[in-house]
Amino acid sequence: MEKEFYAEKESDLIHISTEFLNTFKEESIFAFYAEMGVGKTTFIRYLAKAMGIEDEVSSPTYGFVNEYESPYFGTVHHFDLYRIEDEAEAYDIGIEEYLYGEEKVFIEWAENIDNLLPESCVRVTITKDDQGGRRIEAKL
After folding, report:
1. Where does residue 65 rank: exposed (0-12), middle (13-18), buried (19+ CB within 10 A)?
2. What are the two backbone dihedrals, phi and then psi, of residue 77, each rounded to the nearest 5 degrees?
3. What secondary structure, in 3-state letters, does the chain show?
4. Closest alpha carbon to 47 in 126, 115, 140, 131
5. CB atoms within 10 A of CB 137
6. Closest among 112, 83, 77, 120 to 98, alpha carbons compared
7. Which residues contact 46 (CB under 8 A, 6 or more apart)?
8. Integer Cα distance of 99 and 75 in angstroms
9. Hey, where are the domains in the chain?
10. pLDDT, tens digit, for every residue of 65-95?
11. CA-angle at 96, arms to 98 and 36, nearest 5°
12. CATH architecture of 2-139
């Protein structure tokens, strides 16, 4: 399954997030790919809002994962793997427990663990165009 979204401005992410979650409601693992500063964390923040999460959502700064509670989806894990050195380090932090569990998992810088991602992972690529809009392509 493939789905493409376009956000002309940040406020478009409100509706896109809801549509995204409805489209991929059965999936648990979401791998995000984008250059630095294109909007991975921003989109995840809007997804969290659409999931009913009231906590402030940000990329994990000192650890690799933040955990949030959604009244509709249960526990949600948000990884930022920018600083991960290799797949062995991902195993050291217990990534496989998250990748093969039932809870929702959002992974920024997923390319650092590409070989570990399950087949059922939704791969989300975000690109910025010349007008400042964002194209969000999701593939399962």
Report:
1. middle
2. -110, 135
3. CEEEEEECCHHHHHHHHHHHHHHCCCCCEEEEECCCCCCHHHHHHHHHHHCCCCCCCCCCCCCCEEEEEECCCEEEEEEECCCCCCHHHHHHCCHHHHHCCCCEEEEECHHHHHHHCCCCCEEEEEEECCCCCEEEEEEC
4. 126
5. 15
6. 77
7. 13, 14, 16, 17
8. 13
9. 2-139
10. 999 999 999 999 999 999 998 899 999 989 9
11. 70
12. 3-Layer(aba) Sandwich (3.40)
Per this entry, what is the length of the chain? 140
pTM, full prediction: 0.94
- Could you tell me the two tokens for 132? 């400042």
User: Six-digit token pair at 114?
Assistant: 């590409």
21-31 pLDDT, tens digit each: 999 999 999 99
